[in-house]
Amino acid sequence: MYTPGKIKDEIEKVEGNTINVIILDSPPITDDKDAVQKGKKTGAHLVIYGGDHRVVTGETITEFYIISTNTSSTTPLFLDVNSSKKAIPILYSDKSIRLESVKQNVSSAVYTALAFEYYRKSQYASAIKMFKHIVNYENEKTILFYIGNCYCELSNFDGSVPNKFLINESLLNESLVYYYKTIEIDCNYSLAWNNIGYVLEELGNHDEALKAYDKAIQLDPNNSIAWDNKGCTLDSLSRYDEAINAFDKAIQLDPSNSFAWNNKGSALYSLGKYDEAIDAYDKAIQLDPNNSIAWYKRACVFSLINDKEQAMSDLKYAIELNSSYKEISRNDSYFEKLWTDEEFKKLVNNTK
């Protein structure tokens, strides 16, 4: 029979000291929220509590619960210097995982808890390893979906260079495999269709990406992320008016979506509607002052309309948020008029 101590030992045996686990039994834990609060006070990543008994087919089962102390809902973002797509929506559950004192159940539950904890910590390779240890994971749509997300995240980030995003097509294709496996199990999984659209777009298959976004929207018309991503694909196809309509729909559904405002600004900017573009970037920055892309794009517009002071101010702040804009702006034709400007050269070359 498993006990909380044995469960803790199993986690530590698998992962050493990288994830801290605490067993809470005194004072009694009333619910998940109580467990999380008490776990946070100790600095633990995972909390084990419970110990209720029930009888199943003549056998006494002891139930324990395992929960992460980080239970906030988050949405990982794919950001690069040319785009602000909000591509991978994940709403983490704040419910605990129930463990029973039967080894085969406990083992998979432990791996599940570890996998999601690594996912929350953006340690995607470790998360994949844990997900694939779960018994029958190939038949669990949620696990397949998250494995797809892990490969997708890994495909976009070059960890050796701060703030640098690259595309690894082999990892993108691997993520696509898992997303397709997800919809084989549940063809109505809107989030999976959205993410399929994202991957197809990154692979340059814009027409198929649009079909995937349309499927996501058909299944969930209130999915503002899918509308936003559809707009990005339309923008990349130079279908700017259609893109703006999609961004407006995303904003209607979620007025606080700074990325949709930013993307709308980019489409307006492409149409030469600079005043409207600036208004959209203003809104994006108001909603998220750390949106480096909005600061950079607004700097581009100000440069185009010969407002050097505002262009330099915005570019400086964009660089503070993301240093890769130094190199980008040195080669970006929108700043061509400033390339010989000493203040500009000092900013982007980091000279004294």
Q: If you had to describe this structure to a student in words, what would you say it looks like?
A:
This protein is of the alpha+beta class. Among the domains are: 1-73 and 91-120, no CATH class; 289-352, no CATH class. Helix content is 58%, strand content 8%. The protein has 16 helices and four strands. The chain has helices at residues 4-15, 32-42, 103-120, 124-131, 141-156, 169-185, 190-202, 206-219, 224-236, 240-253, 258-270, 274-287, 292-304, 308-321, 325-331, 342-349, and strands at 21-24, 46-56, 59-68, 97-100. A four-stranded mixed beta sheet has the order 1-2-3-4, with helices on both faces. A hairpin with a 2-residue loop joins strand 2 and strand 3. Helix 12 (274-287) runs antiparallel to helix 13 (292-304) and helix 13 (292-304) packs antiparallel against helix 14 (308-321). The termini are far apart. Residues 72-104 and 158-165 have low confidence and may be disordered. TPR repeats lie at residues 190-223, 224-257, 258-291. One of its GO terms (molecular function) is molecular adaptor activity.
